[in-house]
C-alpha cells in the first residue's frame, strides 16, 4: 500500500516536471487571496510561501528558489491594482481545463484564505471568483 502511494506521488511530481503553468497558477491564486483585502502584509507573504512550498507535488517538481521566485512575482503583480489582478486571473486560465490542476490551485487558495483561522468577506469573494474562473464550485470544497 505504501509503495503504491509513493509511486502515485512520484508520478504526480513527474507529471508536473517543467510545468511552470501550474506553478504560476497556484502562486497566482495564492497571491490573489493574500491581496484580497487590498494589501499584502509580511505574515500573508510568509503564509503564502509556506502553503505553496508545503505542496509535496510542487515541492518535488520545483526547487525552493523556483517556488519562492514565482510566488514573489505573483505577489508583486497582486500589488498592481486591477491590472495586476486581471493578469493573475489570466494565469488561472492556463490550467482551468484540467480538473486535477484546477483543484490543486483552488485548494491552495483556500489554504491561504484560512491561514489566519478565518475567511473574511474579501477573501470569500476572491475564493468565489477563483472557483468560477477555474470552473469549480467553491461550496464543494468548503
Topology:
Layout lengths: L1 H15 L3 H15 L7 H12 L2 H6 L2 H15 L2 H13 L5 H15 L7 H14 L8
Helix pairs in contact: 2-3, 2-5, 2-6, 2-7, 2-8, 3-5, 5-6, 7-8
Could you give a short description of this structure?
This protein has helices spanning 2-16, 20-34, 42-53, 56-61, 64-78, 81-93, 99-113, 121-134. With 142 residues, it is mainly α. The protein has one domain.
Question: What this model shows, in words?
Answer:
The chain has 142 residues and is mostly helical. It has one domain. It contains eight helices and no strands. The longest helix is centred in the N-terminal third of the chain and has 15 residues, at 2-16. The N and C termini lie far apart (29 Å).
What key attributes describe this structure?
single chain; 142 residues; mainly alpha; 8 helices; 74% helix; globular
Count up the domains: 1
Strand tally, please? 0
The averaged pLDDT comes out at 84
Radius of gyration from CA coordinates: 14 Å
String of helices and strands: HHHHHHHH
Residue ranges: pLDDT <50 for 5 or more in a row?
4-14
The percentage of residues in β strands lies in under 5%
Percent of residues in helical segments? over 70%
Q: Report the principal-axis shape.
A: globular
Largest sheet: none
Q: Class by helix and strand content?
A: mainly alpha
Continuous helix count: 8
Distance between the termini: 29 Å
